[in-house]
Amino acid sequence: MATRTVCQVLQRRFATSAAAVRAPANEVRGQRNAVFSREQARQRALYPRIEKIEVSMQGPGLDGTLLIMNKGMSTPLSCARHLTEHHLTNSALALVDGEPWSLHQPLTHSCSLTLLTFKDSDPTLVNQAYWRSCAALLGQVLETAFKDDFTVELLNTPEVPVTLGAFCCDVVLDPQLDSWTPSEESLRSLTRGAQQLIHQDLAWEPLEVVPSVALEIFSHSRCKQEEVEQKAAQSPKGTVMLHRCGDHVLLSAGPLVARTGLCSQYEVTAVHSLGRGPWGLQRRAQGLSLPLQLQAHHTVWRKLRQRAEKMVEVPNTEEVNRLSPPDSTPPRTSQ
């Protein structure tokens, strides 16, 4: 325990000095990717020989279907490939023995598996993962939207229910930008950045790691290192969940949907000032999105957008649970 504490102190000191030097953004992304890939390879090497597991499929038309898969290698998406094109293209999330599970996260034991879509009778878990994914996408856009001359510090992404009408991402920009007020063209530019990532149909790759690995990945960010320690302390297993999308590595409070291509209508609607915080002038970027399977007519979208422009007041955990009823779902309207 003492050794780990010393290690964390040293890493925080390194983060402070690194911030002062201000490493180029592409160098930081490269370092994070390298550590992520190294740990991903190490975890895969834990299964040197192929062992078989039994996966019992659950869901309409699938009850009783048994798949023989590879332990530590096969994922829920691998299982979907053995089913139909519908399951492969429409699945967004999975339940493994009743636990929310990314479609790209390897299966490590025999289990029951349910593939979830946006049109399920109870889409609560999928909606939560989708909103979380949209916020992650917004953070990725913000991190790369400014030149290397300006720093961007992504703060802890608030968990907000779909019923609040907008997802959000808190950020601190370079002090040189404190007087910057985003114009409509700025918001459109951020929206175009998100749409480019959606068009690339990138996977959100999950990776559960011990805190020391996450601290190394975020060695250039004191803010993220504190977030790593908080999430590890809150986790029953003492681990943290990372995701990688393209060259962007992020911390996540829960599973994300399978890929960016599941997003369809997506718009960055506002950037609000939250005032001064410990890291500088905090801003809350907000957006609105609907998944590929649930489209809205332009008149409905306009009304939803007006609502998404208003600043989201982040509720506490108890309020999130209260505001997320079992039947909460985005509007199901067609074009």
UniProtKB/TrEMBL annotation:
InterPro entries: Beta-grasp_dom_sf, Pro-tRNA_synthetase, Thr/Ala-tRNA-synth_IIc_edit. GO terms for cellular component: mitochondrion; ribonucleoprotein complex; ribosome. It comes from the Eukaryota. It is found in: Mitochondrion. Residues 312-335 are annotated as: Disordered. The keyword Mitochondrion applies. GO terms for molecular function: nucleotide binding; RNA binding. Keywords: Mitochondrion, Ribonucleoprotein, Ribosomal protein. Belongs to the mitochondrion-specific ribosomal protein mL39 family. PANTHER family: LARGE RIBOSOMAL SUBUNIT PROTEIN ML39, MITOCHONDRIAL RIBOSOME PROTEIN L39/PROLYL-TRNA LIGASE FAMILY MEMBER. This is Large ribosomal subunit protein mL39. It comes from Perca flavescens. The lineage of its organism: Eukaryota, Metazoa, Chordata, Craniata, Vertebrata.
